């Protein structure tokens, strides 16, 4: 680490993400000249250019990209060692960035931040929206410290040795339809076979899981509208353009009145916390995990 330099490695990692010396300087608090010097020092140690000019910014060379990718692991290992040494302290202090997506941002983020501020005032939480199907990768890449994830029995999240999944909440799906649809408040998937459907594409875990559930019920859903935005799907369903599956958390994203039909079929999804396995010993990550468990246990989701 002394030869490569922690500051230089962090500058290179940020440069890979931001694409300009000025942006890295703004993020790290160093001058642009100081950042350039750190990159030049790394190039001297490696013996090969790490960057090339690209318009007003810079791009990493192949050598630079390899070093930046390896630097993420090196910096994480250093942070984990420091975190373990400080774990004996009674006060949790530091900053964590949380990856969120649609329904978790709308329903769980605010209670988490507020509860954390009460029990751990020294822990500063920030958030960043990530694609629901890319949360684990965002943690592995170091873009966020932890992230909400979602998986389905028929389409589980891929397991990787670098990350671990902490179960938080299991939700059952119901069907959202137009308020004008008559009948009882419960139904089955097979009874909905005759309706047009509003689903995410089949290539998504959500879309694959729902289609698999429909096939288990004996039919292939007639998908008229493929949308990934939950609020848009609920809007279409509320206007009578089809049926769409929803969970209690997903319902809060809707602005259009809908009628919710509970399903006799058990179709579920599981909300998890994705964290880097090397970070499990960090006091901040442990504290966040416990607060989040309390929030999901107490926060109403119906």
Spatial ordering of strands, largest sheet: 4-3-5-13-6
Helical region count? Answer: 11
In terms of per-residue confidence, which ranges show pLDDT below 50 for 5 or more consecutive residues? none
Instruction: Give the class from helix and strand content and strand pairing.
Output: alpha/beta
Rough shape?
A: elongated
Could you tell me the radius of gyration in angstroms?
23 Å
Number of strands: 13
Strand content: 15-25%
Count of all domains: 3
What CATH calls the topology of the largest domain is D-Maltodextrin-Binding Protein, domain 2
Q: Write down the secondary-structure element order.
A: HHHEEHEHHEHEEEEEHEHEHEEH
Helix fraction, binned, reads: 40-55%
CATH homologous superfamily annotation of the largest domain: Periplasmic binding protein-like II
Estimate the mean pLDDT confidence: 88
What's the N-to-C terminus distance? 51 Å
**CATH class membership of the largest domain:** Alpha Beta
Largest sheet: 5 strands, mixed
CATH architecture of the largest domain: 3-Layer(aba) Sandwich
Tell me what you see in this structure.
The chain is an alpha/beta fold. It has three domains: 6-86, Orthogonal Bundle (Arc Repressor Mutant, subunit A), CATH 1.10.10; 94-171 and 270-298, D-Maltodextrin-Binding Protein, domain 2 (3-Layer(aba) Sandwich); 174-266, D-Maltodextrin-Binding Protein, domain 2. The protein is built from eleven helices and 13 strands. The strands form four sheets. It has a five-stranded mixed β-sheet. A four-stranded mixed β-sheet has the order 8-12-7-11. Strands 1-2 form a two-stranded antiparallel ribbon. A hairpin with a 2-residue loop joins strand 1 and strand 2 (57-60). Helix 1 (6-18) crosses helix 4. The longest helix has 25 residues, at 62-86. The mean pLDDT is 88.
